[in-house]
Amino acid sequence: MKRRNFVLTLAVAVSLGLGAIAGCGSNETTGSEDGEKVLVMATSADYPPYEFYETARGEGEPVGFDIDIAQYITEELGYELEINDMDFNGIIPALQSNRADFAMAGMTPTEEREESVDFSEVYYEATNTIIANKGSGYDTFADLAGKTVGVQLGSTQQETAQEKAEEIGDITLEPRNKVSEIVQEIKAGRIDAAIVEDTVAKGYIQNNPDLEFLPIKDQEAAGSAIAFPKDSELVEEFNAVLAEMKENGEMEKLITKWFEEYYANQGAEEGAE
Ligand code: ARG
């Protein structure tokens, strides 16, 4: 443990040194008050339990599964963490222009995204569901024929729904910046359904009992990974700590905390409104 920390510290020192020599304009070089290097993380805090605000009005700092992982990793590597909340669709551009050092947003590593950013190993698997008003019973894409379907702009759900719409024909997509907007529009009857990942759907449904969510049949699991600017030296460092978290039980602890205990304690109430 000691030795690994030393090796990691050394790796960080070396990579920072190289960064400085190369004069790269990354945020890594930003210093904090107590001299620790700051890493800026981009996220889209509309996604309980990954990242969300505990207050309905979005005050304070985002909390959640991704935030805890980010905190653990940056602390382990000797960085200070700064969180920059933005629309999901703005995250990859933020990484590409070095306005963020990494991003955690329940983001699925797709081939298309891999052309613009680098990804860590997958740290959590999930599946997609259909959210609709209670009693709708939609559990296949074919059920959505003739319907309006909300998806988050720039998400894999949008991409999948687009493919299905082309295949099936009669599906009207309604992309929105925030998952919370989509849920509100379903409640108001302006949209028929939405494609949302299971764990996130669970949080929204818990607080909106008029809605239901059904897992989509024949879906591949969609994992989450950490995204970085292309060729970032942080990828390896972060992967090392992710592996350590899987080994030492920290990841399992956070999965239990956010995907089981959190809902059991019904704390999602305000965050998912
Ligand atoms: N997993 C999906 C994707 O990568 C959705 C992620 C949405 N994340 C968010 N924080 N709103 O596209």
Structural class: alpha/beta
Please mark out the parts with pLDDT under 50 across 5 or more consecutive residues, or reply none: 1-29, 267-273
* Largest β-sheet summary: 5 strands, mixed
Within the largest sheet, what's the order of strands?
Answer: 7-6-8-5-9
CATH architecture of the largest domain: 3-Layer(aba) Sandwich
The total domain count is: 2
Separation, N- and C-terminal Cα atoms: 42 Å
Write the element-wise H/E pattern from the N-terminal end onward: HEHEHEHEEEHEHEHEEHHH
Instruction: Output mean pLDDT.
Output: 87
How many E-type strands?
10
Radius of gyration: 19 Å
Measured by DSSP, the beta-strand proportion falls in: 15-25%
- What percent of the residues sit in helical stretches (DSSP H or I)? 25-40%
Count of individual helical segments: 10
CATH superfamily of the largest domain: Periplasmic binding protein-like II
Structure notes:
The chain has helices spanning 2-22, 65-77, 91-96, 111-114, 156-168, 179-187, 198-206, 234-247, 250-264, 268-271; strands at residues 37-43, 79-85, 102-103, 117-126, 128-133, 148-152, 172-176, 193-197, 211-215, 222-229. The protein is an alpha/beta fold and 273 residues long. It folds into 2 domains: 8-124 and 223-261, D-Maltodextrin-Binding Protein, domain 2 (3-Layer(aba) Sandwich); 128-219, 3-Layer(aba) Sandwich (D-Maltodextrin-Binding Protein, domain 2), CATH 3.40.190. Helix 5 links the parallel strand 6 (148-152) and strand 7. Helix 2 (65-77) packs across helix 8 (234-247). The chain has 10 helices and 10 strands. Bound molecules: arginine.
